[in-house]
Amino acid sequence: MDEQQAQRVARWIEVVTAELGVPAPGELDGILDVAKDAAHSVERPAAPVSTYLMGYAVAQGADPREVVAAIARLAREFDV
Description:
single chain, mainly alpha, 4 helices
């Protein structure tokens, strides 16, 4: 992501979190990695679903780094 994209994403996160009344993600790079791994190793539509599931797991108390690692492993190993 270039600097302009990073600024737009940061501003988007500010707008959405303010509207929804939720905190900003602390693990943005991990979220992007999860989306990339799911999109490239499974199918593109798996990316938003995987990031949703990551957020759900973290909201339940899971460590974000462990969730990122687990999803990356599962994506690498995925074979239909």
